[in-house]
Amino acid sequence: MLIKKLSVRHLIWLIVAVIVLLFVVYWLKFKPVSVIAHMVANVELRGEVMGTGTLEARVKTTISPRIQERLAEVFFDQGDTVKTGQLLARLDDAELKQQVAVAQATLAAASTTVIRVRTDEARARAVLQQAQLQHKRLAELVSGKAASQEELDKATETLHIAEADLNRSRSVIVEARSQIINAENNLQLRREQLAFTELRSPYEGLIVRRDRDPGGIVVPGSSILQLIDTKEIWISAWVDETSIAALAVGQPVRVVFRSEATRNYSGTVARLGREADRETREFLVDVRVQQLPVNWAVGQRAEVYIESGHKSAVIAIPQKFLLWRGGEPGVFVNYNGRALWRSITLGLYGQQDIEVTKGLSASDQIVMLSETLKQPLEDGQAISVR
């Protein structure tokens, strides 16, 4: 009798559990789920290709010395604007000024030597002329037996000595001229080295970084200042390689700096990269910005939205309603209170919307679960539109 009572009690509990389970299944499966709806319509759509990049200067120069010397003065700091040819920094020039003075003195001495040897040449030429006349006169006298052969031989010897002295004077002049050329070249070299102590701006621009202060020894190639040309500043953005066919130089661009996320700046595509990254499959697009924020910094991040097309009266849906199944795009459509999956074909991507070229019409209503709900919407599930 007791066994029968226990069996009946277990049966009752089993029946209750089954009823509860069926109720839960019904509640989960058949109770309408609250969804957000959007009525599909024809809209005007501007296609955009998005990329992320950094603000860069096209022309950037490192101001560095060409000689090793002590840094004497730096006249500008980061954030300062400079003009073409303006003196930016100066090296210690005391030793080089002395070398210039020595080179000038050497050139002056060489010039004096040239004057002296030219005087010697003039004297040697006069002596030679006198020796030639004497030799000619004695030769005539010897032919008339009015002078002896010994006197003629002595005049000939004097003539040869005079010719040798003139040739020697001319050689000394050539050597003196060479010394002048060497002295002039040395002076020019010392003056150029002295000019290297003044570091001037190669163009009008902005100092973005100061790397050295006066007092230390700088060597060729070491950075003292970093200078950029503010007329050539653009954003180098990485864009997915799948968008390369839709891009061209001159396309309008909407730029959003992360420092001002609520403001758009206008720009244009200045240059397209011709090499994609082998890992990320992205390539560089350089965008020239027409106006910069009041406060900006080279290297700051920004998003660019390149206008890749413009269409009127096209079927488009908000991108947040788009779902993917097995690599295929689709949406849930409200069909008599149930969410039915429908595959679609995509077209032009806009800022927030995306074109649907096949699969939807202007009379359809698409739905999605609230973003706060974690479970996915199922095909055929009952829905309740908010």
Q: What is this structure's SSE topology?
A:
Layout: H1 2-29, E1 33-39, E2 41-57, E3 60-63, E4 69-74, E5 81-82, E6 87-91, H2 94-143, H3 149-195, E7 198-200, E8 205-210, E9 217-218, E10 225-228, E11 233-240, E12 252-257, E13 265-276, E14 282-289, E15 301-318, E16 323-325, E17 328-335, E18 338-343, E19 345-349, E20 353-358, E21 365-369, E22 381-385
Parallel strand pairs: 1-22
Antiparallel strand pairs: 1-21, 2-11, 2-15, 3-10, 4-6, 4-9, 5-8, 6-7, 8-10, 11-14, 12-13, 12-15, 13-14, 15-20, 16-17, 17-18, 17-21, 18-22, 19-20
Helix pairs in contact: 2-3
Here the CATH topology of the largest domain equals Elongation Factor Tu (Ef-tu), domain 3
Number of domains: 3
Helical run tally:
3
Query: What is the level 1 CATH name of the largest domain?
Result: Mainly Beta
Structural Rg: 47 Å
- Strand count: 22
Amino-to-carboxy terminus distance: 58 Å
Could you tell me the mean pLDDT? 87
Name the CATH architecture of the largest domain. Beta Barrel
Lateral strand order in the biggest sheet: 2-11-14-13-12-15
Shape: rod-shaped
CATH superfamily of the largest domain: Efflux pump adaptor protein, beta barrel domain
Roughly what fraction of the amino acids lie in strands? 35-45%
**Which residues sit in consecutive blocks of at least 5 with pLDDT less than 50?**
none
Share of helix among residues?
A: 25-40%
Largest sheet entry: 6 strands, antiparallel, barrel
